[in-house]
Write a structure and sequence with these properties.
Layout (H helix, E strand, L loop, with lengths): L1 H19 L43 H7 L18 H4 L3 E4 L4 E4 H5 L6 H4 L1 E2 L4 H9 L1 H14 L5 H29 L7 H10 L11 H25 L3 E9 L5 E11 L2 E11 L5 H15 L9 E6 L3 H4 L5 H9 L4 E4 L1 H13 L3 H18 L2 H14 L15 H11 L11 H15 L3 H16 L1 H11 L12 H21 L1 H4 L11 H9 L12 H6 L2 H10 L1 H6 L4 H18 L5 H10 L3 H4 L4 H8 L6 H13 L9 H13 L9 H10 L27
Parallel strand pairs: 4-7, 7-8
Antiparallel strand pairs: 1-2, 2-3, 4-5, 5-6
Helix pairs in contact: 8-10, 8-33, 10-32, 14-21, 16-18, 18-19, 20-21, 25-27, 31-32
Length: 717
């Protein structure tokens, strides 16, 4: 009888357990410890399942049925449905596997691990629970099996593969060293034929480098790969810009090729910078040919036609082929990119032309130029005269410097330096300085030289110096060099000459700068009112000229902002600018700057507004106009610097350099990082992956590199 009662309670408890766990919605991962699996995946019995006969409270001989009737806890219940396997578990648990035929699930990680004895390792059939999978995935034994399984899935390279990988690593190090040498050659403007000797020098100093492909052709190819990577980064930078301006200039190189150089003015970290786009040979020197060359340069860089949707300004010198109103490059650019583009004549060029045009109207100033040119010519082509001049200077206590040339230059600074070196003295009214040494030397030549021709030229030169001493002071005043002395100490006739020269210069500058200095509403501006009015309106962003009164400040510049928003309407809409919000932001931004940022300089202020939060977000619409302002091409001097680099690179002994090779050298020399910060790893990996050259490292015995005589100093594109 006791045995039957125990069996009954065990069966009743089992039924109750299955019914309680049938509802999956009440099962959570926070189950008590007695419901979790043990280390060998056997479910422990509940404490109440372990019923002893003494706990039932039955007396000996009592009927089972009577006791059962008195205990409603063990009333008969419907048998629960068995647990079914959920297909979604396969996605949730990557280690889970299931067989529909056998109706069994198991852990793939643990099953493949020899010696693992667990329920999921051998397989679970019928009773499928989600918390069983969850607890199993968290167990340390399962995680160890998972790591072993993943480790076995990774294919270990064979001995041949390991040798190949080591060879590739050796090749990479070799190419990196040679790229560093090639980059040094380009950065220092050395000929390509120095590549082989430098490789030899590195090997002599103990570096692990071989002479494979150590010639000037490979040096040019490595430099081209480095320049191409810089072009790719530049194209990506242009794509990120909202607004850009372009600057162009033309020149003829040493090989008598007419080339056009192109720069882009854009913003980097809130500051305007000029970046080289490229250089190309011009097929036809007319406006259509120059514009076609500009498009070709952009295409070669990888920018395609995307730059046309960003351009807002065009800068060049005063040549009619560039800024001609009827058929210049600017006309073709506006037809292709939009009428909003503002053309700008380079300010340094315009200033030089204005000054020279005004000074030519004054005869005494022309004499100054002629005399200074004669001084330069005398000592530039005669080493003997230069030695005698320095000897006289030592006797007079004057440190003589080489006289400068005032003709054939484009910048006012050249003339200023020439005059400064000619009259080099703290006080030109009492001490003539180098001028006195030159005067004494001419007097010496006129008295002692045996040649009648040199005596006559020196005597004439001495007379001119004596007669025009104050003329030099006059020209120095025009150049802005402050002279000591009062007007009474200067000859009255030359005082009138000074006034006349200044009047001519001021008048000519007003004529050339009228579009910038005058109000576009005035009649003096003429047909240039449309683009120049937009340029004139940008003056409102000069915070130093804002009114101090806040009421006046609120209305200040509103009309100009409306005009700018209308003038650049098309490109502003393409770049996501809201014109209505821009007007509201203009008023708020003025108050913010006047209260908090009035002490900042012009560039520092707008850099803060464009790059710092929350300013760049709160005033993002009005700052579109600030970005356009900052990329306006005020000066094309960067183009002149590019041509200066070209003259240093493409010399008489390197006149066969191709235009594209010259462009690569200019790009690296002017815009490349320093040799210490240059990292060729990415470029070298690309070189090897593309299979451009097969560097058979180590297959040739190292020997001294001896370039051919014809290759010394001679380069090929």
């Amino acid at each position: 009888m006791n045995k039957k009662i125990s069996d009954f309670f065990k069966s009743s408890t089992s039924v109750s357990e299955e019914q309680e766990s049938s509802d999956e919605s009440i099962i959570t991962d926070d189950k008590p410890d007695y419901m979790s699996l043990s280390s060998d995946d056997e479910e422990p019995l509940l404490e109440e399942d372990r019923v002893r006969e003494d706990d039932l409270g039955l007396e000996e001989g009592q009927e089972e049925t009577a006791e059962i009737a008195e205990r409603p806890r063990f009333a008969a219940k419907n048998r629960p449905k068995p647990y079914h396997f959920q297909e979604k578990w396969l996605k949730e648990f990557p280690f889970l596997r299931y067989s529909k035929t056998d109706n069994i699930m198991w852990c793939a990680y643990c099953k493949d691990n020899a010696g693992k004895k667990s329920t999921l390792a051998t397989g679970v059939q019928g009773r499928f629970k989600r918390e069983t999978l969850t607890l199993h995935s968290r167990s340390k034994s399962h995680q160890a099996c998972r790591d072993n399984w993943l480790r076995r899935q990774q294919k270990q390279p064979s001995q041949l593969q390991r040798a190949f990988l080591q060879s590739q690593k050796t090749k990479l190090l070799e190419v990196k060293k040679k790229m560093n040498i090639a980059y040094f050659i380009a950065k220092e403007e050395l000929p390509f034929t120095k590549f082989g000797p430098l490789v030899t020098l590195h090997h002599k100093n103990g570096a692990e480098i071989t002479p494979t492909y150590a010639n000037h052709q490979v040096c040019a190819q490595l430099i081209g790969v480095i320049a191409d990577s810089m072009k790719e980064r530049f194209a990506n930078d242009v794509d990120k810009q909202r607004y850009i301006s372009i600057l162009i200039d033309g020149d003829t190189d040493i090989s008598v090729k007419e080339c056009e150089i192109l720069y882009v003015r854009m913003l980097e970290n809130g500051l305007p910078v000029n970046r080289l786009v490229g250089q190309a040979e011009v097929e036809h020197a007319h406006a259509a040919g120059v514009f076609s060359t500009v498009e070709k340069i952009f295409n070669n860089t990888g920018c395609g036609e995307r730059w046309k949707s960003k351009v807002v300004g065009f800068g060049a010198d005063g040549a009619s082929v560039n800024l001609g109103k009827r058929g210049g490059v600017i006309v073709h650019l506006k037809e292709s990119a939009g009428e909003h583009i503002i053309p700008m004549h380079c300010m340094p060029h315009r200033l030089e032309l204005a000054l020279l045009s005004g000074l030519k109207k004054q005869p005494t100033v022309t004499k100054v130029y002629d005399l200074l040119y004669l001084v330069w010519k005398t000592y530039h082509f005669s080493p003997k005269s230069k030695r005698e001049l320095k000897q006289i200077g030592r006797e007079l206590g004057v440190n003589v410097v080489n006289p400068g040339n005032v003709k054939g230059t484009r910048w006012i600074a050249h003339v200023t330096r020439s005059l400064t070196s000619f009259i080099k003295s703290p006080d030109v009214m009492t001490d003539a300085g180098q001028y006195g040494a030159i005067h004494a030397h001419m007097d010496h030549l006129a008295a002692t030289h045996t040649s009648a021709g040199i005596q006559g030229r020196a005597r004439k030169f001495e007379l001119k110096l004596s007669a025009n001493f104050y003329v030099y002071q006059c020209f120095l005043i025009i150049q802005g060099i402050k002279l000591k002395g009062t007007e009474s100490e200067i000859d009255v006739r030359l005082t009138a000459s000074i006034k006349h020269a200044c009047q001519f210069v001021v008048r000519d500058m007003k004529d050339r700068f009228k579009n910038v200095l005058s109000d576009p509403d005035d009649e003096v501006v003429g047909n240039d009112a449309t683009p120049q009015k937009a340029l004139y309106a940008f003056n409102i962003f000069n915070h130093d000229s804002w009114p101090k009164n806040q009421r006046e400040l609120l209305e200040y510049g509103r009309g100009e902002v409306e005009y700018l928003l209308h003038h650049f309407e098309d490109i502003l809409e393409r770049q996501g600018c809201n014109k209505l919000k821009a007007l509201h932001e203009w008023s708020d931004m003025k108050l913010l700057i006047q209260i908090n940022l009035q002490d900042k300089s012009y560039l520092d202020l707008w850099q803060i507004m464009l790059t710092k939060k929350p300013y760049c977000e709160d005033y993002k619409n009005i700052l579109h106009l600030v970005q356009i302002l900052l990329v306006m091409p005020i000066s094309a001097a960067q183009c002149e610097r590019g041509f200066s680099a070209q003259k240093r690179i493409k010399t008489d002994v390197r006149n066969s350099l191709h235009v594209s090779t010259t462009e690569d050298l200019i790009r690296i020399e002017m815009e490349g990082p320093t040799l210490e910060s240059f990292d060729p790893t990415t470029i070298a990996e690309k070189w090897l992956s593309d299979g451009q050259r097969n560097f058979n490292i180590g297959k040739k015995r190292f020997c001294n590199f001896s370039p051919k005589l014809a290759e010394i100093g001679i380069e090929t594109g």
